[in-house]
Amino acid sequence: MAGLIGAGPGEIVFTGSGSEADLLALRGAVLASGHPRTRTRTRTRTRTRM
Hints:
By secondary structure, the protein is mostly helical. It contains 1 helix and no strands. The protein is flat and about 50 Å long.
């Protein structure tokens, strides 16, 4: 599968859901940023219209 898109086997990750994939992408972005902080806060907010 990785060879089809020119990636290495260690560069492909299959996830069970979209939210899991989103969190994995966010973690990768934080780690790639090079900042020494190892904790990241995420927050979702749902608005309900009446």
